[in-house]
Amino acid sequence: MAEKKPVKITETVLRDAHQSLIATRMTTEQMLPIVEKMDKVGYHSVECWGGATFDASLRFLKEDPWERLRKLRDGFKNTKLQMLFRGQNILGYRHYADDVVEYFVQKSVANGMDIIRIFDCLNDLRNLECVVKAVKVVKHENPNAHAQIALSYTLGDAYTLEYWKDIAKRIEDMGADSICFKDMAGLLLPYKATELIGALKDTVNIPIQLHTHYTSGVASMTYLKAVEAGVDVIDTAMSPFALGTSQPATEVMVETFKGTPYDTGLDQKLLAEIADYFRPMKEEALKTGLLNPKVLGVNIKTLLYQVPGGMLSNMVSQLSEMHAEDKYQEVLEEIPRVRKDLGEPPLVTPSSQIVGTQAVMNVIGGERYKIATKETKAVLSGEYGQTVKPFNPEVQKKVIGDKEPITCRPADLIEPELPKIEAEMAEWKEQDEDILTYALFPQVAVEFFKYRKAQRDKVDMNEADVENKAYPV
Fold first, then answer.
1. Among 93, 124, 182, which residue's Cα sits nearest to residue 344?
2. Virtual CA dihedral for 118, 90, 63, 296, nearest 10 degrees?
3. pTM for the full model?
4. Per-residue model confidence as pLDDT tens digits over 2-55
5. Up-side HSE of residue 229: CA atoms within 13 Å toward CB?
6. Alpha-carbon torsion 292, 298, 299, 302, what sign?
7. Of 45, 66, 302, 429, which has the fewest CB atoms closer than 10 Å, so is most exposed?
8. What is the Cα–Cα distance from 311 to 357, expressed in whole angstroms?
9. What is the full DSSP assignment across 175-190?
């Protein structure tokens, strides 16, 4: 019998699974009743925060994301909590100053976060340094604080086995606690996983985790081969919120490795009870249309065009708004060309949206880069960081003219922002965390703060005469 090497499981049902299938609409109240049971499973970690959950909580659910984190921390007494963090973008869509990034890490850990999974849409490690350092600083308060760097997995001339080995080594040298391969479009094929994980295991000593989506239909087989090749942790979702654009099902992977050297040791009876809890939620989402059955299928086109599911649907709606659905095929063929022009970045938020929108503009405009979006200009000006390959010089010239592109780490050019932000939102501040909420989503945050105040004071702020301080109850 081969030596035992149980594979560990990160459960995504409280974050990526509902983000992928039901637009991040699961509420804290829906989560809390099952936490005690989930805490008994013995997961490596439960991913429950970050990504789009922060924005969606404020914008659509009228919930304080920090409150959610504290409640989950109270409930998960034995399980590590995990979040997704967009490098220097934190959870927003622009680069923030280092002081904001550091404060966000400090507050996340103080409120109960353990594992911070950090990625950058260009795999530019300079955009991750500040977060890794900040996690190291808070380690003395919470020894569980863990900085995991996630590499956005993608295909293309630049992304050779040598490239992945080299960047993994640099991540280890940077002081990260572990590495995750984040395969957002389900592009990693089973035998490629054998090769990739095998090579990385020979290159670095820190643990390696694999995260993929079922979009292209190969994810469970990819996990099987990755585990055999020595991957330490895989991300899975409870079956009601698994498959489609989400992750492989937790129970299926547990059963797959049962009785093998990779046996997870997790209890199927307990997992079945947890699945029973989430099933009515899924059925309700199907009934209301919140869960579109389309996202549950397999889309093999993902492999042909390397376009993540969300990016495809985005593109389709852009084309239909312009009454140009007939241009679908042309735009699909334009995407890889735009991607090459822009230095072959991985297609993940926000680079996927930038490349997709620019491809639509190029096809509709009748001339390539006649119209360039401000995001395309920002990429070509170096504002997002460094791409793996150089930009197409002709395209760069056409889009940004003689402007001198920046070559340093973009955040080096941003002055400290915290004091200014705190002063701006002082009237709304009820807890330190509110400053960060406002820093990331100023308009959405103010709407939420008004709502919170109205709920507490039983005042309708829309009816209030703020000038004369008259508040009808």
1. 124
2. -50
3. 0.93
4. 789 999 999 999 999 999 999 999 999 999 999 999 999 999 999 999 999 999
5. 24
6. positive
7. 429
8. 9
9. T-SEEEEEETT----H
